[in-house]
Amino acid sequence: MSAPAIEVQSLEKTYARNVKALQGLSFAVARGSVFALLGPNGAGKSTTVKILTTMSRPDAGQARVAGTDVLANPQGVRRVIGCVSQKDAVDLDATGRENILLQGQCYGMFGADLKRRVCELLDRFNLTDAADRVSRTYSGGMRRKLGVAIGLVNRPSVLFLDEPTTGLDPEGRAGLWSEIRGLSDTGVTVLLTTHYLDEADYLADRLAIVDSGRVVAEGTPDELKSRLRGDAVHIELDAELVVDDALRAISPLKGTLRNLAAEGRLLHARVDDGASAVPVLLAALETAGVRVSAVSVSRPSLDDVYLTHTGRSFSAAHGGDSR
Amino acid sequence: MSTLVMQPTHLAVRHLRALLRQPAYVVMQLVQPLIWLFLFGQLFKNVTTLPGFGGAAYISYLAPGVVVMSALLSNGWSGTTYLVDMERGVLDRFLATPARRSSFLIGQLAYWAALTIIQSAILLGLAFVGGARFAGGPLSILSLVAAAVLLGMVMASFSNSLALRVRDQNTVIAANVILVLPLCFLSSVFLPQSLMPQWMQTVARVNPVNWAVDAGRQSIATHVDWSIVLTRLGGLAILALVFGFAAVGSFRAYQRSI
Predict the structure, then answer these.
(1) DSSP character for A104?
(2) Of A77-91, A121-135, B147-161, where does mean pLDDT reach its minimum?
(3) What would the pLDDT profile of A247-279 be if each residue is shown by its tens digit?
């Protein structure tokens, strides 16, 4: 196995007024893979990206990108990375083509090679028809695609995507997802930060859950989910009135149910094996005369993983300022 | 080596293209100078009966001063281009590329210098149509434009520093509004120094706006005093360098803070 594309060792960063953004963050990303940093606003995702893209310096710790130390040789890192920020970073007064062209010129590219590369990228992101229109006229999805095209002009070996689909409509999101998937097929290593569980689940080969400037869990999405033992069972009762009856009816089964909770006329629990637990549960409820309107069994979701590691559900942790 | 020149050029071209797409911007920026040149100029045209004007018509006297004032007014907006780029994330995107940090400042200053030259040419043309005459000849007119460009660079670098450090649009605009008129009143833009109260004359001597006006006003003199032109331009060039380096420092401070 070759050296990782990104190696991060015990990064620490404290902002003014003692805001601790990173407190010993470590992870590694294999070459050619898609790695997601998942976490709420203020968890330290963007700070990590800023350090890895040489825009910001850590107070302590080490980081190497494509084998180059970000502190010792930032210029070497800059040459081999591409970077797409949260804001699409598009110059609205320039056309799509001019935006990509200028970025290439910032890398010292010129002439026919650069022109060809720009056409290639416009083509790949379906922007050729709009290429010579001022990008102020682009839709949100088009701007974001242009942002990614700009980040790819220098043929980077590592691409950083900071919340690439925030604020996009479902169509724009789906379009960008397939582009990001396509990138890793061409051998580019992708590090993305995201708020969205489904995004990390769909795109990432591996992911790290970041909370308060630390990695609290790391693995493939499936690994993380399977570490949570068992399936989630959701039972929808006929009426809220019968919840107490239902809880009484299934109390003899408590040994096999974990995290039992009632919410309105819904009962949630976690069991080792959903397929064998459901008939037993239903039989107990029927004996007690409690009517059930729906039952579902689901494999653990990343939201469950998130809840377990950060002590709060993903949607509750959402909000506040991003760092 | 070629990137040393090419990158700032590309960055200047970026701003020039945006300007060409909104040519009305150039006109808008000239409204205030034109009010001074023609309305104020008409209102005070009999002021030349006072001593110190050297027999020139007031519009001739006023024209170099207004060219200098216009450079101050428009270059004072320079910092706002950084604020727009910060807001959009464009500045951070550039900072993650291997391009030299100085390229961004130099390219942007080159753009403002080009804009100053365009605006000065328009103002001088309109002043000529309005009756202003420049007895000093072409070289002295070029010196006037050079003075406007150099003073503009001082103002632009000041505005850039402010934008990079304070990062607030209102502050940058307020600084422009607050500074320009007092700096012009404390110089010989409107009246010869000899007509100023003593304390104003003292302040005017160290006011770089006054240096630019002194150098530029030789364009209406029948006998150009080149020593005045060269010393004032030299002073402005040194000041432009000082403010330019201060802006580089502000650029670094911005980068440390993100």
Answers:
(1) H
(2) A77-91
(3) 888 888 877 887 787 778 888 888 888 888 888
Which of B225, B4, B222, B230 has its CA nearest to residue B100? B4
Of A283, A276, A275, nearest to A252 (Cα)?
A283
Placement of tokens 């850590």 in the chain: A58
Residue B112 contacts residue B156 (beta carbons within 8 Å): yes
Name which of A164, A165, A168, A162 is nearest A140 in CA terms: A168
Q: DSSP letter at A134?
A: B
Rounded to 5°, angle at Cα A245 from A239 and A247: 100
What was the ipTM of the complex prediction? 0.90
Give the nearest partner residue to A89 out of B10, B92, B255, using CB atoms: B92
Q: Measured between CB atoms, which of A50, A54, A89 is closest to B93? A: A89
Task: Report whether A186 contacts A5 (CB < 8 A).
Answer: no
B86 touches chain A (CB under 8 A): no
Query: What pLDDT was estimated at residue A313?
Result: 56
The nearest alpha carbon in chain B to A91 belongs to B90
Q: Residue B100 has what DSSP assignment?
A: -
Q: In the structure, what pLDDT confidence band is assigned to residue B116 with cuts at 50, 70 and 90?
A: very high
Indicate whether A292 pLDDT > 70: yes
Q: For B12, name the nearest residue in chain A, comparing CA atoms only.
A: A102
Contact A87 B11 (CB under 8 A): no
pLDDT of residue B147: 98
pLDDT of amino acid A311: 63
H-type helices in B76-207, by residue range?
78-88, 90-95, 101-129, 138-166, 169-185, 198-205
Test B96 with A54 for CB contact under 8 angstroms.
yes
Check whether B192 has a pLDDT greater than 60. Answer: yes
Question: Smallest CA–CA separation between B81 and chain A, in Å?
Answer: 11
Q: CA of A160 to nearest chain B CA: how many angstroms apart? A: 11
**How many Cβ atoms are within 10 Å of A1's Cβ, its own excluded?**
5
Which of A54, A77, A97, A105 best probes binding to B when mutated, by most B CB atoms within 10 angstroms?
Answer: A105
> What's the half-sphere exposure (Cβ side, CA atoms, 13 Å) at A69?
7
The helix (run of H) or strand (run of E) holding residue B233 is helix B226-257
The rounded distance, in Å, linking the Cα atoms of B255 and B104 is 13
How many other C-beta atoms can be found within 10 angstroms of the C-beta atom of residue A21? 25
